[in-house]
Each structure stands twice: as C-alpha cells, then as structure tokens.
Predict the structure.
Amino acid sequence: MKHFNLCSKDNLTFPVNQKLNNELMGNYITTVNHLDDLSSVGSTYVLIGLPSFSIEDSKPVISDNSFSEAIAPLLNFLQSPFNDGTDILALGEIKANSILKSLQQDADIKSDLVGAYQKEELIIIEELISIITDAEKIPIFIGGNAQHSFFISKFLSLALVSQINLLDISPNFNIRAKNIQNGKNLSEFKLHKYDVFGLHKNYVSQTNYELISTSKKINVQYYEDTLHLTTLDKCVKLKNAIDYLNRSFGVRLDAKSIENCTNAIESSSGFSIRDLRTFIKMIKKEEVHFAHFCGFESSQSTRTRNLLSYLISDFIRQEE
C-alpha cells in the first residue's frame, strides 16, 4: 500500500536485556510482509500508527512519529500468561511526509494542500479498516486526533454494514455542531450514539451545551461531577455510559484526560492513572470494535509512553 510502512521484525528495535531476550513480548509480537497475510495470522489485535497533523501559517505540519518508539515499553514487557505477544500484530504506520511530498509535486492541488493530504490519508485508513475487518481482527490506533476517531467509526460502520457507537474519554467535546443534523443524529460519521466521558465544563460552548441538552444521540459525563468520587463511584458512571452505548462501541482515549499526562491545560486536572487503568479493565469486557489512543505518541516524555504501553497491555490482556 502506497504511503504505508509495514512493520518488520527489524523495525521493532528496542533495548534488549540479553538475559531476558527470549522472554520479552517484542520477540513474540507478529508482523506481516503483505496486507493480504492478515487473515492467516492468529493475532486478535492490530497495532497501527497514525501521524500527528497541525497547520502553521496555512501550511500543513506533519510529524512522522516513530511507531516502534511509541510502543517500545510494550515490547519490553515480559511474555507470560498475563502478556501474550502472539495476540498482537504490529502492522505499521502511515507515512504522512511521504503523502505530503507526493502532493507537493502536483501544482494543481497546492491551493488546498491540507484538504488533499487529508483525503489521501483517509483513503489509506479506510482500506486498512476494510482489510482488518475482513480478517476479523480488532484495530488499535496510536496517534492522530479526534477527527480520526470519527472517520474510523465511519469506515468500520461501512465495513460492518451497521452503525456503531463511540465512547470518547476526553476533556473536549469533539463533534462539530455542523456535523449533526438538527441535533438528533451523527449521520455524517455513521454513528448511532456518542458519549463523552470526563468532559470538562471549561470546554463546553453554549452551542455545544444546547446540542448536548437536546440530542437523544449524545450523552456526556462531566469531569467536574466526579471530583468528589472514588474510583469505584467513577466506574458506576462509566457503567452508565457503557449501557447508554448498548455495550457495543469504539473507544477513544485522549491523553489530555489524564492528570499531568501532557502539557495541555486540560491535563492539569484529570483522571488518575489508577482511574484509567480501571476504566480500561471495564471497557475491554464489552464489545469493542476499535481502540484509539490519542496524544501519547507525540509526547517526548518516557513516562507518557510507558503509560501508553500499560494501557494497551491492559486492553489486550485475557483474564478469567
């Protein structure tokens, strides 16, 4: 696939303790040489790297984050009955700068380089989701932004020929009002229901508030309403959100929702790591169509990347 870099065992370079070399998960994680090989691999989960994207001075600025770097702590966890690397397929990452370089050579699209880039990227994501769905596997996306989650939901809905729901653990309300027809549905992204868990009241506009208040397809749990609660009490609120989504959904976890996880102002007040790991333990018991971990890979903090790997391992762990 053009502009997509498949992982190989050589790509998954990570610091190896020679005494533990054969016991590390990284030595058990699967890779493929061709996308057509997905169906023949026994792994349940497929890891995919998404690029970060921003606009400065009307020009796209793209960071090709190192996929293997982002998951390096995961590769160094020990292989055991608790962590089974064979259940993970490290597929690869979208090469954003490759897309951009290709587009810049076309004089006809320079007037809307950002739009052209986004179109090309979505074509790749849709194709990947179609292949992964056909192989009956669960994609785990690392990187990107909130809009990626909505398009992932859309493409999965199309592949499954069924609308799905989205649980967005985020301090922000990420649906734009113009995307919702009369505040009653989320048809643009083929979403049936949308729930924002941990929404900060500081980031709710009047328009969003009116939308949330009138729509039967949108539900929120405000972070400020959990400040006095124990982790167990917060789980009760999460259970309500899960029930609202009919216990079948895709999940997006924004690093900004975690206290002191990023430099974003939202992260100055957020859920504890204990809270999040408990939430993941609950979520994975439901019918989860995909997971999207957003904002962890772009941080240069080793602590943040370590947390990402803990959350991924929690999500894929098989427990009795």
Summary: The radius of gyration is 19 Å. The mean pLDDT is 88.
